[in-house]
Amino acid sequence: MKIVVDGMGGDNAPEAPVKGAVEAARELGAEDSIIIVGREDEVRKVLDESGYDGDKIEVLNASEVIETGEPPVKALRRKKDSSIVRGMELLKEGKGDAFVSAGSTGAVFAGSVMKLGRLKGIGRPALAAIYPVVGMEPSLLLDAGANAECKSEYLREFAIMGSIYMDKVLGVKDPTVGLVNNGTEENKGSALTKEAYQLIKNSDVNFVGNIETRELQNHAADVIVTDGFTGNAIVKLTEGIGLMVIREMKKRFLSSTKNKIGALLLKDQLLGIKKEFDYSEYGGAPILGIKYPVVKAHGSSDPQAFKQTILKAVPFVKGDVIGKITESLEAYEEAQVENSDETSDVSGQEK
């Protein structure tokens, strides 16, 4: 298996993606390797500085970089020799098995749809983000920002795709699925959530119903389903609160001369909580609903985050997540056709 890494994507490129690739290469299986795509002289300089002398990493030159502030579609069309475009081309040509990038979210997402294509039956691909839960295993939230406006069918697709990814990549069997709403009752919410509730309820997932945002930190569900606007707000709010809590605890206890004993006792707990809120421990967010495995790393990813993202791409491929999603969608469509035929037969008999 070959994991393609965008060597020029992210705030800390090329150091972070290249050093992360070096660390990941040391843990990959004997049959796995990495292709770093980017400005070859810059990439090789970091490789040399890292002291890497193995044979699991190769470099493919790409002279251009798509910057975060550029209009995604225009940049993809203009910069055909960018690390994002070249990396995705490797996937489509069968020369790579998964693509990892911390570059412009808009460009990575748009490129995934334009150059790699959506799966049949998927209305909108989704960004699936790891949602940290203190003291417990994390949840998976989607959509985390790719689709600000959604239809109820999209939320059903998110539930199916999230369940399969949670099972095959994160190892959670028969994961629970919850729909974000302003109440737990079945008839609560907007027209969107009411329709989505019925669609998800009748899908082949372990649906636990509506969940309120205050319950997300209690691990209300393994898979959290919502529209991209709400999901992005949840992720950023949670990240902000987590950092604020850690900052205030450090200020009040660790820097106080009157609480040295308490500070020592709390130090390990603080570090543990910080680790649970640290995205670098979990890797990136997969874009689910496209024909090839693409994982979007956080823009400010450090080498540890890149390492984890690259390693998470392995079970994404080996678990055949895309194939399983395709099978599930086909089974759902067949069931819909059968139900429609049965309804037509009954209607004909009544007449």
Overall mean pLDDT stands at 87
- Identify the overall geometry: globular
Tell me the major beta sheet: 7 strands, mixed
Determine the N-to-C terminus distance: 59 Å
Order of helices and strands: EHEHEHHEHEEEHEHEEHHEEHH
- Tally the beta strands: 12
Oligomer: single chain
Helical proportion, percent range: 40-55%
With strands numbered from the N-terminus, the spatial order across the biggest sheet is 3-2-1-4-12-11-5
Global structural class: alpha/beta
Radius of gyration, in Å, reads 22 Å
* Unreliable segments of 5+ consecutive residues: none
Strand percentage? 5-15%
Tally of contiguous helical segments: 11
Quick summary of this structure?
The protein is an alpha/beta fold.
How is this fold's topology laid out?
Layout: E1 2-6, H1 15-25, E2 33-38, H2 40-50, E3 57-61, H3 72-78, H4 83-92, E4 98-101, H5 105-116, E5 126-127, E6 129-131, E7 139-142, H6 152-168, E8 176-180, H7 191-201, E9 206-211, E10 223-225, H8 228-254, H9 260-277, E11 285-288, E12 294-296, H10 303-318, H11 321-350
Parallel strand pairs: 1-2, 1-4, 2-3, 4-12, 7-10, 8-9, 8-10
Antiparallel strand pairs: 5-11, 6-7, 11-12
Helix pairs in contact: 1-2, 1-10, 3-5, 4-5, 6-7, 6-11, 8-9
